[in-house]
Design goal:
Number of helices: 13
Distance between the termini: 37 Å
Order of helices and strands: HEHEHHEHEHEHHEHEHEHHH
Largest sheet: 8 strands, parallel
Helix content: 40-55%
Number of strands: 8
Oligomer: single chain
Strand content: 5-15%
Strand order of the largest sheet: 1-8-7-6-5-4-3-2
Structural class: alpha/beta
């Protein structure tokens, strides 16, 4: 079954779909072990873990393909991913869709920022004309090999031109055939409610520490009308803080006892990465060589 079919079924339910952000294969397995039903992998997290740099659009399409393929292979959950601006014009968009689909993702969201793009919460953004973005949406829809792949259109117009233009753009992108829309920066509940009321189809919402505002509870975002909610960089920031703390303690105290209580037990880690299954497979295959 195409993973997009499973994600579409989740989006069609009355209750909101919570998408924890994952930044590598291990974090994806951890999220699955906690019972989440779908995942999201974003560009900010990818740039942080792959380059140790802020998200200013410096990763290439092939960087993302390799990154997302590893995450998708590590979990049985459907994965929604960040496709930036589509990495160029309509031909680039079509190549991106085909490569991302082969990587095993359930869906992608593509934004209307001008190149070079920036993280959605950074200043200095600009958006392309509506018609240009609609052309990219049509190109993406035509390129997918399976119609189950979800094409989500994101607009960054809210923080630049205001809510009315953001709503109009989301409406136009939905009319162009996008399966889902995402208005970046709709962090206030009044904005999110207005967008969900005005734009047909499922709406993706985002809770990000980068917004630097009080995080709204899932129940309130669901009442506002969003079909899905992502915590795009939460796990990456949690991991960064944990590693920073452990390294600081090791440097200060000089022995493992200073950080032992902060480490995952090796038995639990081995369960998450599936060591027993790997060892069983080794034994089974070795039996044929004797």
């Amino acid at each position: 079954m195409h993973p997009g079919i499973r994600l579409r079924a989740l989006l069609a339910r009355p209750e909101i779909v919570v998408l924890p952000g994952v930044y590598d294969a291990l974090s994806a397995r951890l999220a699955q072990s906690h019972g989440f039903e779908a995942l999201v992998a974003g560009g900010n997290a990818a740039t942080g873990v792959l380059l140790g740099e802020p998200d200013l659009g410096q990763l290439s399409m092939r960087d993302y393909v390799d990154h997302y393929a590893r995450i998708a292979a590590a979990t049985t959950l459907p994965l929604l991913v960040d496709a930036d601006t589509g990495f160029g014009g309509v031909h680039n968009v079509q190549q991106m869709v085909r490569f991302f689909e082969r990587a095993g993702v359930a869906g992608l969201f593509m934004e209307d920022q001008a190149t070079p793009k920036r993280c959605g919460y950074l200043a200095g953004k600009a958006v392309i004309p509506v018609g240009e973005m609609i052309g990219k949406i049509h190109a993406a829809l035509d390129a997918r090999r399976d119609p189950a792949l979800i094409i989500c259109a994101r607009t960054d117009a809210l923080g630049i031109h205001g809510r009315d233009e953001a709503i109009e753009r989301a409406q136009r992108y939905r009319e162009a055939g996008a399966d889902m829309t995402f208005v970046q920066g709709a962090d206030r509940m009044e904005d999110l409610r207005a967008i969900c009321e005005a734009v047909p189809g499922p709406q993706l919402a985002n809770v990000s520490q980068a917004a630097q505002i009080g995080a709204q509870p899932v129940a309130e975002i669901e009442r506002a009308g969003a079909a899905a909610l992502m915590y795009s960089i939460t796990t990456m920031l949690a991991a960064a803080r944990a590693v920073d703390g452990v390294l600081g303690a090791l440097r200060r105290d000089g022995h493992l006892g200073a950080v032992g209580s902060q480490l995952m037990p090796i038995q639990q880690y081995n369960e998450i990465v599936g060591l027993a299954a790997k060892e069983e497979a080794e034994a089974r295959y070795a039996a044929h060589s004797s």
